[in-house]
Amino acid sequence: MNKSEYWDNIVEQYQRESIIFSSDFHYGPLIDGDSVLKLLPRNIKNKNCLELACGGAQNSIYLAKKGANCTALDASAAQIAYAGKLAQKNAVQIDLQVMSMEQLNSQSGCFDLIHSAYGFNFAADLNKVIKTCGELLNKDGVLLFSMPHPLFSGEFLELDDESGLFIKEYFSISPDLRLDEDANETARSYFYSIDEISTVLAQNSFLIERICEPQICEDPPYTSKCWEEYRPQMLRFPGTIIIKAVKN
User: Fold this and answer.
1) Could you give the CA distance from residue 235 to residue 217 in angstroms, rounded to a whole number?
2) How many structural domains comprise the chain?
3) Rounded to 10 degrees, what is the CA torsion of 119, 120, 122, 125?
4) I want to staple 163 with a disulfide (CB 3.0 to 4.6 A). Which of 46, 54, 119, 158 is the partner?
């Protein structure tokens, strides 16, 4: 099973159980949106924006409401179908396409902002994806993405009166394997170290403007019952890393 089939199979349950608002630009579960973090370009009206691994395209819907011209891609046809209904409900026009990040090429368009929330971690070849993003961005264009923090790969342990994270090997973190009910692998979510991310960006002529490791908040624009179970851990350790980089 490839990752598009994985998402096709779980999209109904995922969208039903997840609370993802389009009234704020979200970066991941349990953390503040852009109304607090303020990472988006200041003036987004009439800007050409591309969302990768968009899911329900809630972030593209948010940007479209602000006057941006939005394109949103996802490998899952079921996710794109859901995004279409959500865009219609919010009375915005978004160019929705069934396409994986790996299928992007330099002919896919020209953009001022490329963004992805918890999408790049499903890319086995992060360099290829970021290289293509660089080819698609206009000069001084912004690449804004979030993914699971490498610390979130650790196991939270409680020993006697102490508790904390145990990470077996930071420099070679095993991916998070998604399994079906028969224990067959359906998808992989990768953890990338901060050094790996910054190196790939530098190799592709990006300047990092900000690295953000936000703490969780009380009223996040993205949450679910499952994610709320991680709240005690994420109060102490970052679960998400956000990177804002500018094409040089």
Assistant:
1) 9
2) 1
3) 160
4) 158
**Contact by Cβ (8 Å): 97, 72:** yes
- The pLDDT confidence band at residue 15, using thresholds 50, 70 and 90, is confident
C-alpha distances (whole Å) from 143 to each of 60, 111, 172, 207, 245 are 14, 10, 25, 10, 5
The verdict on residue 181 lying in a domain is: no
H or E segment at 72?
strand 69-74
The predicted-structure confidence for 16-63, as pLDDT tens digits, reads as follows: 888 999 999 999 999 999 999 999 999 999 999 999 999 999 999 999
CA 155/CA 28 separation, integer angstroms = 20
**Rounded Cα–Cα distance for residues 112 and 78 (Å):** 27
User: C-alpha angle 186/214/74, rounded to 5°?
Assistant: 35
Range of the domain at 135: 3-149+188-247
Residue 201: what residue type?
L
CATH code of the domain covering residue 16: 3.40.50.150
Distance separating alpha carbons of residues 192 and 171, to the nearest angstrom: 9
Please state, in angstroms and as integers, the Cα–Cα distance from residue 35 to each residue in 58, 111, 199, 221, 236, following that order: 15, 23, 29, 10, 23
Q: Identify the three-state secondary structure at position 61.
A: helix
